[in-house]
Amino acid sequence: MPNVAELAEGPYAKYFNLLNLFAYGTYSDYLANQANLPELTPPQIQKLRHLTIVSLATKTKCIPYSTLLKELDMKNLRELEDLIIEVIYADIVHGKLDQKHSQLEVDYTIGRDIRPEDVPNIVSVLTDWCDSCETILSNVESQINKANTNKDSRNKHKTLLEQEVSNIRKILKNQAQDVEEQMATDTREVGAQPEKLIKNSPKLKEKRQKENGKLCSIHLIINPSYYYSNATWKWQILVKIIMNCQVNHALKNI
């Protein structure tokens, strides 16, 4: 503002410097330029120390106690921790005291006024950030297009598979119908054959031979003497054993 800039020269120059000190400076700047500044009251000194902690917190998230003691011109560690606790309770800085490592861990801090000479640096940082955002958006769009292309390809492949499965089912169904019709035709042809062919079939002959064998065995048990006279010596021994078994069984029943 022009009317404020006019204070830089004249009897109010010290107050103009004091305004810049509270806007951009730190407590160490006050000590270095104390001759060009008016004398500060204890509340003003305390306020400037708060702002000094804010300036340090914008540069690093872990501030060693040694740096704080130097920048705030303090000799007592207990006094320093009380000041930090006061800053935290005032919501100027959010963080915690790490007494084990003798440092202040910063999570959040308020902002301070920006020096005119810092504006180009801020613009450069924001420009880089915008370029990074555009690059990320471009990559995201390319990934979306790639995903859509893969999705279309999978859908086409799925459609082709479904068509092939449908065609195979139709072919299998037609083949099953042909087999059923052929079996029905064969059944009718077998039913129309002469009875003589059925009687002379190999399966019926084999069945008759098995039945005849069973009848012979039954006849042997019922009337073994018939085979005793006409059988070979091996069969005679077998018939004799069977006859003895029948006699013993009859004696037991008496």
UniProtKB/TrEMBL annotation:
Keyword Coiled coil assigned: yes
Taxonomic lineage from the root: Eukaryota, Metazoa, Ecdysozoa, Arthropoda, Myriapoda
Coiled-coil ranges from the UniProt annotation: 162-189
Annotated PANTHER family: COP9 SIGNALOSOME COMPLEX SUBUNIT 7, COP9 SIGNALOSOME COMPLEX SUBUNIT 7/DENDRITIC CELL PROTEIN GA17
Protein source organism: Strigamia maritima (European centipede)
Broad class of the protein's primary localization: cytoplasm
Keyword field contains Coiled coil: yes
Domain of life per record: Eukaryota
Family: Belongs to the CSN7/EIF3M family. CSN7 subfamily.
InterPro entries reported in the protein's UniProt record: COPS7/eIF3m, CSN7_helixI, PCI_dom
Alphabetical UniProt keywords: Coiled coil, Cytoplasm, Nucleus, Signalosome
Pfam families for this protein: CSN7a_helixI, PCI
Protein name: PCI domain-containing protein
Domain PCI: 1-111
Protein location: Cytoplasm; Nucleus
GO cellular-component term (any): cytoplasm
GO biological process terms held by the UniProt record: COP9 signalosome assembly
